[in-house]
Amino acid sequence: MNKIIAAAAFVAAALVASTAPQSAWAATPSPPNAYAYIGYPNDGQVVPANKPFRVWFGLRFMGVAPKGVKYPNTGHHHLLIDTDLPPMDQEIPSDRHHLHFGAGETETMIQLPPGKHTLQLLMGDDMHMPHNPPVYSKKITVIAR
């Protein structure tokens, strides 16, 4: 009797799993050798405090396309300021720590208060989701004075 109950429970679990809604997120693939980098400023560089300065985005072995454009091996930049990488299975947040460049921009002007700050790039697909594998830069530190 216990074997019949166990078998019925197994079949029921399999049916529930097969009819349960699947995750809406399926990571957009990226080329395995793709990488992003910050071309300017350099790690450890002093930047002007409370004045705009240029941040230049670099990308190798992958193309840039605006938000909403789904084309293989492309994405758009997100600049992370004073924060860690977000969860890779969720849409990249949009706030003062996660700047979106959905028009395909490859540089920007930002302004930081005095102090030590971190900058990092993360590529997002046509819907602001990280790729698989994720494409991001090394986190750099700048000093605003």
Describe this protein's structure.
The chain has 145 residues and is mainly beta. It has one domain: Immunoglobulin-like (Sandwich), CATH 2.60.40.10. Helix content is 12%, strand content 33%. The chain is built from one helix and nine strands. The chain has one helix spanning 2-19; strands at 35-40, 46-47, 53-60, 63-64, 74-81, 98-100, 107-110, 115-124, 140-144. The protein is elongated, with a radius of gyration of 21 Å.
Instruction: Please count the helical segments.
Output: 1
By CATH, the topology is: Immunoglobulin-like
Order of helices and strands: HEEEEEEEEE
> Helices and strands: which structural class?
mainly beta
Strand content: 25-35%
For the record, the count of structural domains works out to: 1
Largest sheet, if any?
Answer: 6 strands, mixed
What gap, in angstroms, lies between the N and C termini? 76 Å
Structural shape? elongated
Outline:
The chain is mainly β and 145 residues long.
Structural key phrases:
single chain; 145 residues; mainly beta; Immunoglobulin-like; 3-stranded antiparallel sheet; disordered N terminus
Topology:
Blueprint: H1 2-19, E1 35-40, E2 46-47, E3 53-60, E4 63-64, E5 74-81, E6 98-100, E7 107-110, E8 115-124, E9 140-144
